[in-house]
């Protein structure tokens, strides 16, 4: 199997704070990986490292077999879809859902190039895949939290990425929207066989087709393995520094 991401001994710091300490991680093509851990564990920082935006103090990162350097970051990032923890589109911006999803294409075709017929098809296809066709002409500010997350996913899919990074996409949603989005993410993985990394601190939000896990705590990967074995009372209690009881109902 090809490793799409190879992180070796990476340390990241924000001023005097160390956010990642000597982290190593390989992600094989086609894997759906959950990154689980409490707030402040370094999960978002790990995603920014993969996405070429981490402030790396030491260590090395290869994505798609290429070393991440300032010169080739732009090229590599075209193939990485990123759904950030907080939506980075101002809801007051006077743009429609279709235009937001089209932003996903601009990375590929350039900002001021006209979209071809094929680009438009890809944008419509991405909206169809997450079932937001009927929202296409709505202003971005007029959507619920769940709908906004679907738009963010469609935008990333319009990019036709090789890797999809999802940073707590379900964290702020009500229970119905959360379940809908979890099922949607599950379906996207099954239908596209993308390599996906799903960050969460809420264990019940992990889609069922996600089978691999890394557990993070205080800037370190403390455990790697199958998700079934990660979700054990003793492992989770250590991770969250809190007694966690798994209850069968
Ligand atoms: N932009 C930043 N400036 C300073 N410190 C930061 C910044 N982003 C994150 N940190 C710190 O780095 C650590 C890891 O943060 P983060 O990767 O966001 O964790 P998580 O996503 O697991 O909650 C935390 O201690 C956090 O306070
Ligand atoms: Mg985070």
Report on this structure:
The chain has 2 domains: 1-79 and 163-249, P-loop containing nucleotide triphosphate hydrolases (Rossmann fold), CATH 3.40.50.300; 93-161, no CATH class. The chain has 249 residues and is an alpha/beta fold. The strands form 2 sheets. It has a 6-stranded mixed beta sheet, with helices on both faces. A 4-stranded antiparallel beta sheet has the order 2-1-4-5, covered by helices on one side. α3 runs parallel beside α5. The protein has helices at 43-50, 73-77, 97-109, 117-129, 145-158, 175-192, 227-230, 233-240; strands at residues 3-14, 17-28, 32-36, 56-63, 66-67, 80-83, 163-167, 195-200, 212-217, 220-226. Residues 43-44, 85, 167 line the site of magnesium ion (MG).
Q: Would you spell out the secondary-structure blueprint of this structure?
A:
Blueprint lengths: L2 E12 L2 E12 L3 E5 L6 H8 L5 E8 L2 E2 L5 H5 L2 E4 L13 H13 L7 H13 L15 H14 L4 E5 L7 H18 L2 E6 L11 E6 L2 E7 H4 L2 H8 L9
Parallel strand pairs: 3-8, 3-9, 6-7, 7-8
Antiparallel strand pairs: 1-2, 1-4, 4-5, 9-10
Helix pairs in contact: 3-4, 3-5, 4-5, 5-6
The structure holds adenosine-5'-diphosphate and magnesium ion.
Q: Regarding CATH, which class of the largest domain?
A: Alpha Beta
Based on the structure given, which CATH architecture of the largest domain is correct?
A: 3-Layer(aba) Sandwich
Helix segment count? 8
Assign the structural class, choosing from mainly alpha, mainly beta, alpha/beta, alpha+beta, or little secondary structure.
alpha/beta
Note poorly predicted spans: none
User: Assembly state here?
Assistant: single chain
Radius of gyration: 18 Å
Give, in order, the helices and strands. EEEHEEHEHHHEHEEEHH
**CATH homologous superfamily title of the largest domain:** P-loop containing nucleotide triphosphate hydrolases
- State the total count of DSSP E strands: 10
Which topology of the largest domain does CATH recognise? Rossmann fold
